Each structure stands twice: as structure tokens, then as C-alpha cells.
Amino acid sequence: MTAANGLRYIDSDGHILEHPTAMPDYAEAKYRERIWHIETDDQGVEWLHYDGHVTPANRLASAGTAGLSDEDRARAFRGELRYTEVRPAAYEAKARLQDMDTDGIDVAILYPTMLLGLQAIRDIDFAEAQARAYNDWCSDHVQQGEGRLFGAGALPPMHEPEDVERVAAEIRRVADLPGMVSVFMRPNPAVDWRPFNDPVYDPIWRAAAETGLPIGLHPFLAPDLPGACVGLRLGRPRNADGSYLDDWDPDRSLGTTLAESAVGTSVLFTQAIANPVDVMSCIAYLTAGGVLQRFPDLKMIFLEANGGWLVPWLERLDHHCRKFQWEVPDLELLPSEFFRRQCWISFDPDEAMLAATARSPLVGADRIIWASDYPHPDAKFPGVTEELAVALEPLTFDEKRAITSESAIALYGID
Predict the structure, then answer these.
(1) Which one, out of 83, 85, 327, 410, has a CA that is 20 to 30 A from the CA of 374?
(2) Interval 73-124: pLDDT, tens
(3) Could you count the other beta carbons within 10 Å of the beta carbon of residue 6?
(4) How many helices (H) and strands (E) in the chain?
(5) What is the distance between the alpha carbons of residues 207 and 85, in angstroms, rounded to a whole number?
């Protein structure tokens, strides 16, 4: 599908809400009751069943409110909208295609919503079963999309060094599933705070490089893994009067459920600060830390952390690698050169720095993809491609085409 302006639009980081009832059917019997699903009681109240916890499902409806009326959005955030009352396109493939047509979007790559937090779960066996169930369901789901939907696979947790091989094995399994074109991880040094250039993670990079699956580093809002939320105390709960808890131990939040870890914390600050800080750290360790040199076929994607900071960050990394060369004597390229060779970054459609980043020799339009974030509440629907057109206006047609579609085609290997 080509729009009237001659551009094709590929949404490189759309989202899907987890289907309310389908995933248990994809899991082995002993885990089915714990696999993500929603049950409705005799009074018509919906309850989320996940990892042995039962919580009200209504609070999750706010994640699927793109395109709803202001009244329904307000109901969702008050917990008055049922999960099954969200926009049908949130988890129905045919309805999703209709909403994509509204905005002239040809293809969408779908990442999950609540399962973005999967890697914090401490029961590794269950979490692996949950990842497999999601990936198998997602593969079936996107195949209902008439060749216009593709999926990003979930990976199990890795809290200990021995867990890493399970992650690598799931990457190799996902590579054989129809319609799955990437996998995602959280940008958090999950194994004992070891940064991503530590050799402990090499089986993951090797599996992705050998299968050709890109790895998307996608943040999540909970302070439940090592990273900026915990390290900078961003998840520190507050009292009703606004004061902070005096005896709070940030390590206690590691491995907690989303409901437990988010109590009293500010989503504004955890996401505004932690998302880019964690992603910036990953870029530093993957480039200057030598990962991309050791694995030249590895493709990395940096998602949902904005992108206007990227050029000065790469400049700083290049500068430090030159000035402190004795710390990286075997590094064959500058960080920006590794980025230009093996990395992509996602921009929101309304980012003012999009055009400037596309024209920087450190990045370029062919390293930029764009994301709708549909059906999440901050997504613009309808009108996302019109919003993107404003940000792209200073660019040439070829630069615009790279960002709207060609970069994603090269990254994900789709046509």
C-alpha cells in the first residue's frame, strides 16, 4: 500500500494487548492456570490470572484506549472500563487492519503490552512456558493479518548466568515461527547488574546473529529489574503527604509484580528518566564495549526511548573512545560507526529532532524507524501518519521513504 504522497508506511513498534483468553491453550497443562488470561465471574467482573496472582482486569484497559472517546478514556483510567471493552483492534487481527487502513499504514510489527515485563518473573520455568505460549499465539495471530502483521517474540528471564542459554534457545525457536521477525528484551543488566558487554550474554548475541533475528531493546515502566529505576531510586514509594518512605530498600523491588512495584511510584519519572538512560547505557556497552565488533551480524533496535539525544550521545562516545583509547585498544571502529553498521532507533512521530538526526552523518535516515505505539493511550489515532509528515517535512523524498518504510524493510527482512 502506497499513500497518495508516494510513501509506504511501516509501523516498526506497534503494540498488541494480550488476548483475554487464548494463551493458555498454547501452554503445557501444568502451567495453563498461571498463563496470562482473564476470567469473568458470576457478577460479570473480569479478573486477570497471571503467575498465580489474581487481580482486577479493568485497570489494564487503559493500555488499549487509542481512538476511544475522552469519556471512555477517562473511564478506563478510573478502572471503570472492562478489558474486553477496549478497541477491538487491540487484540483482533482483522480489526487491526481496518485501523491501519484509516491511517494509511501498510505493515505493522507488533510488540506485546503487559508481557513486556515478563523478564522480571523469578520462576524461570513458568516464565519460559509463558514466553513460549505468547510467541506461539502471536505467530498464529499475525498470520491472520493478510501479510501485513508481523510479531516480535518474548524472551524468558535471565537472573542467573545459567538462565542465558534458555534465552538463546528461545531466540532460535522463534526464528522458525511464521510471521515472527524479531525478539525483544528489556534494556536492563539483569544478570547481577553485569552490563551487556559481559561475556555472560554472548549466547544471546550469537543466537540472534546466527538466526538473523534483530533484538529490540524495549523498556518497561516497572522498577523490577537492575537498571536506572532501581539504581537511581526512581521507584521509591511516596506517602500520601508526598514524602518518601525512609526505610525503602530498592533491591526489594527486584522481581516483584507490576502491581506491587508500581504502588506509590511515578510513571512519569520512571519512564521519562529510566527509558532513555537504560537505552543510552546499552548503546555504550554494545558499541564501545565491543559486542557489535564480536558479532558483526548482530542487529540491535532501540525502542520507546525517543531519539533526539542520539547524535550528541554518539559524539560523546566517539570522543571518549578517542581520548581514552588505551581503555579500548582493540576497538576497530568508533561507536557511531558500529551504530551506523548494525543499529536502528525508533522515533515517535512528533519528535522535533527527527529530521536533524536523519541528516547527521553519525546516524542517517536509513538507521531510523518510526513507531505508532498503537493502541496505547499516548498513541495518536487517527492521524499518526499526518503527524509524522510534519516531522519529516524538511527531508528529501528519499530520506522520508527510508524512515517511513525502507529502514524497517532492511531491519526486519520484510517486503
Answers:
(1) 410
(2) 999 999 999 999 998 999 999 999 999 999 999 999 999 999 999 999 999 9
(3) 9
(4) 16, 11
(5) 39
Cell numbers describing residue 122: 523469578
CA–CA gap between residue 102 and residue 341 (Å, rounded): 35
Cβ–Cβ < 8 Å for 221, 270: yes
44-80, pLDDT tens digit by residue? 999 999 999 999 999 899 999 999 999 999 999 999 9
Question: What is the H or E stretch that residue 316 is in?
Answer: helix 310-323
C-beta atoms surrounding 171 within 10 Å = 25
Of the candidates 297, 150, 133, 278, which has an alpha carbon nearest to the alpha carbon of residue 211?
297
Q: Which three cell numbers stand for residue 408?
A: 524497517
How many residues appear in the chain?
415
Q: Is the Cβ–Cβ distance between 184 and 116 less than 8 Å?
A: yes
The H-or-E segment that residue 301 falls in is strand 300-302
**pTM, two decimal places:** 0.95
Strands 105-111, 9-15: pairing is parallel
217: closest CA among 342, 50, 129?
342
φ/ψ region of 384 (left if φ > 0, alpha if ψ in -120 to 50, else beta) reads alpha
Residue 377 phi, psi dihedral angles, 5° rounding: -65, -25
Residue type, 36: W
The number of angstroms, rounded, from the C-alpha of 308 to the middle of its chain's C-alpha atoms is 18
Helix (H, G, I), strand (E, B) or coil at 270: helix
Q: What CA–CA distances, in Å, run from 305 to 180, 261, 288?
A: 23, 21, 20
208 residue type, one letter: A
Residue 274, C-beta contacts closer than 8 angstroms, at least 6 positions apart: 219, 223, 227, 228, 229, 232, 234
Helices marked H in 250-395:
258-261, 267-269, 275-287, 291-294, 310-323, 335-342, 354-358, 384-392
| Rounded distance between C-alpha atoms, residue 365 and residue 407, angstroms | 8
